[in-house]
User: Fold this.
Amino acid sequence: MAQPAWQEPVLLPVDTAPVPEYGSGSLCDLLPTLVAGQGVPGFTAAIPELAPADRNCVFLIDGLGWEQIGAHPDEAPFLHSLLPTSRGGTGRPITAGFPATTATSLASVGTGLPPGEHGLPGYTVRDPGTGELMNQLRWRPWTPPKAWQPYPTVFGLADAAGVRTAQVSAPAFERTPLTEVALSGGSFLGRLSGEERMDTAAERLAAGDRSLVYTYYSEVDGMGHRFGIDSDAWRGQLMYVDGLARRLAEQLPARSALYITADHGMIDIPFAEQSRIDFDEDWELRAGVALLGGEGRARHVYAVPGAEADVLTVWREVLGEQFWVASRDEAIEAGWFGPRIDERVHGRIGDVVAAARDDVVITASVNEPHESAMVGMHGSMTPVEQLVPLLEVRS
Assistant:
């Protein structure tokens, strides 16, 4: 809530942002923990609550955060019943990572690294080599994948160590650059329907004495963006994916562990002036800005050379009661992107980084018309976006 005119605004200190649990309880810690339990060299169990299994399956439901499952016991009875099993039976969630967005989270899952190392620290970020914005979900403009993200995937390392490894997803994802840099290694099996994916995942899990299988479903997120998580369309998708999770769980072969997780949660943002701040119509926020990256609730702001300090000052004055607004160095020091930042990643992070605390977004109606029209949003470090399940079923 804004302060009365006679009071100074109360700005959100950078160090009050709830930083993800990198190293002990975030998405980047999941696969390293699983393959450590399977004896793959070079990995340690980063999430200590998880017990080893010979066969591990990860089912990632795009956009289905911890709080959404908890709030919908009727639509998701199976998933809701598994909440006490989360994080090794502690009944606790894990965190996605910052920003809480698909490209960043999938890279964290697949590489076992936080964003500051794998180098996909946002929906769109500046390529320091070209000065252009790079969309890391759609990979536009095209950039050599291995130069952008050079680390091997956990899937590839596990496969090389003799673990039977497979990804089961939509056929369209097989040859995308994001799949190459984040989710490749072993076999890719494209299946159109959710039911086919669940059945194939169970089959592949049983195919090896040690196996690691990843499967994915996207439309919970899609309906949330289009219609919001308070819509019948979204609830219908939740009911459907609840059935998929049960279908997979009922087919687990012996000595298996199924982990059901997500890449982020979601929040509905009202279509009201105070909730949607349009960068393209706001002269104060635009002053000194060369490029606007990220997404509505997690912005990377790239200043005109020499204007970095002024842009930071203005963004704090305009937004600092509703957003955590940090300089690049402050965000790095606070650990938003993980404990280490690779040199090649440093310039991809904004000169200013703005992460929403309140129910508000920074849209860009001219340059981002599709994203600006979305109902459901995500990206920041609030619990509704950041906390994701790690539900467990064992056979």
Observations:
- The chain has a mean pLDDT of 97.
- The longest strand covers residues 55-61.
